Amino acid sequence: MDGPPLLKPALYEEAEDGTVWLKGGVCSCGHVFFPLQAFGCEACGGHGEALSPRRLEAVGQVISSATVHLHAGRGREAPFNVCVVKLNGGPVIRSLTMEGTALAQPGQTVRAVLAVADGKDPGAKVRDLRFAVTA
Question: What's the CA dihedral at 115, 120, 121, 122 to 10 degrees?
Answer without folding.
Answer: 70
